[in-house]
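Quick check before the chapter quiz. The format below is the same one you will see on the exam, so make sure you can read both the input and the output lines.
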Amino acid sequence: MSGIQRAALVLIIIGALNWGLIGFFQFDLVAAIFGGQSAVLSRVVYGLIGIAGLITLGLLFKSKKY
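Here is the expected output.
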């Protein structure tokens, strides 16, 4: 796994935890940290998490080499 894939995986885990908080407690941690959902920095974080999802999508179809 490359460094970019590892970084993308970390961002996806952050996004998943954020969605869990939204689902269970109606609390958006990213928005709380970066100044609301419409704040520029929050939108950048949301965008990076989306790009990370696209990057790691390839891991689903990658065959294991032993």
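If your answer matched, good. The chain has a mean pLDDT of 91.
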